[in-house]
């Protein structure tokens, strides 16, 4: 989960550490939301960076108490806080060379049974319009692409184990042109003098993929920020980008409680305005939730390759799921849900062909 919670809104009024920009309290709302989502990892932005991560960890330990008396783990970089069910083996808050501001970059130590650990970059890009702010956002992207090049290369400031899944997420504040986002996705560095040549960020030399969730799974809305009292239209400011050569999406959504049915709210233990900062129309940011699975999109026969041998597996998944499971033991038939709509049908054919051919 990633959520810009709006400057310490998850802490009670009167808390002496509240950020000076704070305007609203939503302590109970936040707790209901994280209880309903039940994330393995939560990335939050706009928390006073003077706070110790243990304060946020305590909230998760209370709402989502680990079994057997365990604990959540927390890390901080600037106003970005990452809270995880799993410990971290590395935490960095700045790239080398540095970009603008701090980020929370963590190597998550996944339990035995996973094929790799998980590298997660929790970002909050410079806010607002204007050429100076856009230049700072571009610097953040340029520096991150250079850092990930370093991570995929032995030596230097950071070295990740080969094929470690990479996810970049958070409030990217894409409010001007698309270049900062395009740089993150495909490695098109603008300031090559400082940050080196272009470097596509995925392990196979390709672009990262934009998870692009929709409201409450089905959409059609995809905005992540909205404020009806402002002159600005709703927009996508928050993103989840990932190395789809190593992991794929099983489920994805933007949680908007304002449009959920009373029955769905009751079933989830939520209330109508739990994700809205100031009801009814000033939403601020909404939480994004992505459920990842190991294995590349299109690798339907679980051999860690995407090639023509996956065609037979796809046909079986489409026509005879039981035969698929018998032919590929331990391989989830849900891999064939290529458009991530919860069903395996003819609508998955086009995205499968696109992945298979690299289109």
What features would you describe in this structure?
This protein has 359 residues and is α+β, with helices and mostly antiparallel strands. It has two domains: 293 residues, Endonuclease/exonuclease/phosphatase (Deoxyribonuclease I, Chain A); 49 residues, no CATH class. The chain contains nine helices and 14 strands. The strands form four sheets. It has a six-stranded mixed beta sheet with strand order 5-6-7-8-11-9, with no helix packed on it. The protein has a four-stranded mixed beta sheet with strand order 1-2-4-3, covered by helices on one side. Helix 3 packs parallel to helix 4 and helix 7 crosses helix 8. The protein is globular and about 60 Å long. The relative contact order is 0.10.
Question: Which features would summarize this protein structure in a list?
Answer:
single chain; 19% strand; six-stranded mixed beta sheet; four-stranded mixed beta sheet; 25% helix; 359 residues; 14 strands; alpha+beta; 9 helices; Deoxyribonuclease I, Chain A
